[in-house]
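Entry type: protein chain
Record version: 2
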Amino acid sequence: MKERGYSEKLKGTVNKVKGEAKDQFGNATDDAMLQAEGKLDKLKGEAQQDIGEFKDRFGNFKNQRR
């Protein structure tokens, strides 16, 4: 079952891209709040990707023990 962590990793990628766009646009327009939102979205995306990796690894470990 390879799609175990795929969903989380995909959500993470989307949030990182969205966050980068907000961060860059906030930087271009001198909007500190938008930059902060972008940085938060990027952190959220990184966390989601890490969760997806964990699910993949844990799932593989769990299947090996059976």
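Comment: The radius of gyration is 16 Å.
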